[in-house]
Amino acid sequence: MTLLPEEIKKDFPLLARTVRGGRPLVYLDSGATSQKPVAVLEAEREFYERHNAAPHRGAHLLAEESTERYEAARATIASFIGAEPGEVVFTKNATEALNLVAYAMSNAATAGPEAERFRVGPGDEIVVSEMEHHANLVPWQQLCRRTGATLRWFGLTDDGRLDLDDLDSLVNERTKLVALTHQSNVLGTVPPVRRIAERARQVGALLVLDAAQSVPHQPVDVSRLGADFLAFSGHKMLGPTGIGVLWGRRELLEAMPPFLTGGSMIEVVRMEGSTFAPPPQRFEAGVPMTAQAVGLAAACDYLTEIGMDRVRAHEEALVAYALERLGEIPGVRIVGPTTTEARGGAVSFTVDDIHPHDVGQMLDELGVAVRVGHHCAWPICRRYGIPATTRATFYLYNTLADVDSLTDGVRKAQEFFGRP
Amino acid sequence: MQLEAMYQEVILDHYRNPHNKGLREPYEGEAHHVNPTCGDEVTLRVHLEGDGPDARIADVSYDALGCSISQASASVMTDLVIGRSVKEAMAVGDEFLALMQSRGQGEPDEDVLEDAVAFAGVSRYPARVKCALLAWMAWKDATARALGEAS
Q1: Is B16 touching A (CB cutoff 8 A)?
Q2: B108: distance to nearest CA of chain A, Å?
Q3: CATH architecture of the domain with range B3-145
Q4: A376 is catalytic
Q5: pLDDT of residue A232
Q6: Domain NIF system FeS cluster assembly NifU N-terminal: where (chain B) (predicted)?
Q7: CB-based contact (8 Å) between B32 and chain A?
């Protein structure tokens, strides 16, 4: 293996605990949220113990230190994705980052001429895909409801890929925005972003990427992606909950109206009305999640030290092994691509005649934590005519033995629930 | 294994051979319930004879998608309520709800709950309590609709 996961596990205190009658924990749910290394926990603790104050306000020493650390965290996180610090907006999570763009687009209706690019209304189209997480689907459905724009979507092929046959008709001169996952949280599929980005550029549509499952697991360089906006969450990449990122191209952020308004996002406030700060502050109303930003920066440092290329290679080896081992079990069907080509670390599957809840319960009994259900991407289940799936997701701390625990558990579930 | 406390043989039997399954006519009330966290679904119909709380439950029919716990619970529930008055059946439903909320501490009355006592183990798994209650909630809803139409 590229990494030494048994060594890496030692950095994660939670992974040493036992569950359900003293069994060692096998954590295969990092796609929902990752565990945290000591370095991240310490960074947050150190901030609260030594430097806690509201950043960008106050003239006292602690306020200075807090501001310095908050902005240094922004620079670290920006560098992690190949961006400039001024292009990184802190949000609560990827969901809020995507909503920020969707609501800014509604707000463009009443903003000045600089916001023209973001206005949508009847006759305009927004394009998503059938494999989106609800966080990159529902905000656009709602934007269409508020503005009268039309939602259209890419379908999926039987083998879990994006169906691009009608790319040119789907993304057309009426398209204002394309919102797409950078890696499916259910199927693991990595869509051909460059091809879609080129088409979006041709017709002048904005491209928003939901990178919640890509930034934690592979090298991402926004300067080479061809996207206009990119959203991800800190907690899925070893960082704390309560912090996410919206990256946007500078000229777009400068022209985009705010979503949440209030303190720190203003320029001048009078009773008659207000003007707004330049980005990224324009999009960060209220006292921000400072300790969380510091924690996320520590997570970026931790991942950078290991190397995102190596993280990706490690996960690819785990996925290849999982696909092979699961494929050997009669009655198990992979939902999504069955090779590691253009594929990330989410492996969803069904087991004939056993509901995913029951599979998950057996795995839990054996100490194996997986996700069961529709994984906040219900249309995927409808597309493939299944009620739900069992999903294993991998990270840098998982081992081949973890995959064996998974497949052993699936076989035990078949023995237990099979007809006597 | 702990799991056997939850998946009692009675539950697995009802799961493999569900009673009263399938949607039937006639009916006065229908409800469709989903568990949005997992996607389990049930469509359930109630056929009553008579009016008000003394009405007799002549039939409960359903179509459901879901895990063994939700499927078995639907099957056991129909056995428990069909043939009773609405008032009696509601009392059984309340007893079952109390058992499910007992976090493994309940002492179910087998005379009242019959096969449903097998679900006592489920109450120790908070994530699964909703599975066991899905059909019961749909039945209460469908019954309220049936009574609304009947009165």
Answers
A1: yes
A2: 23
A3: Alpha-Beta Complex (3.90)
A4: yes
A5: 98
A6: 6-131
A7: no
What residues of chain B, 88 to 107, have a C-beta less than 8 Å from chain A? none
Report whether pLDDT(B151) > 50. no
Task: Please identify which residue in the block is written with the tokens 């879901």.
Answer: B66
pLDDT of residue A2: 82
Here the tokens at position A20 are 């359900």
More confident site: A374 or A27: A27
- With CA atoms as reference, report the closest residue to A225 among A129, A86, A82, A91: A82
CB atoms within 10 A of CB A304: 13
* pLDDT tens-digit series, residues B128-140: 999 999 999 999 9
Query: What pLDDT, in 10s, does the model give residues A82-127?
Result: 999 999 999 999 999 999 999 999 999 999 999 999 999 999 999 9
**Domains in chain A, please, with CATH?**
5-30+307-417 (3.90.1150.10), 42-304 (3.40.640.10)
Predicted TM-score of the model (pTM): 0.94
Distance set, CA A410 to CA A51, A318, A352, B111, B128 (Å): 48, 17, 11, 37, 19
For residue B26, is the peptide bond before it cis, meaning its omega torsion is within 30 degrees of 0? yes
A419 touches chain B (CB under 8 A): yes
Sort out which chain B residues have CB atoms less than 8 A from A361's CB and list them.
Answer: 3, 6-7, 125, 128
Q: Shortest Cα distance from A325 to chain B (angstroms)? A: 25
Sign (positive/negative) of CA torsion A52, A58, A60, A63?
Answer: positive
A264-283 pLDDT, tens digit per residue, is: 999 999 999 999 999 999 99
Reading the block at residue A85, the tokens are: 């610090």
Q: Is B128 on the interface with A (CB under 8 A)?
A: yes
| ipTM passes above 0.90 | no
Which residues in chain A (376-405) have CB-CB distances under 8 A to chain B? 378, 381, 387-388
- Enter the tokens of residue A382: 């409808």
Q: Which residue of B has its CA nearest to A362?
A: B3
Question: pLDDT band at residue B81, thresholds of 50, 70 and 90?
Answer: very high
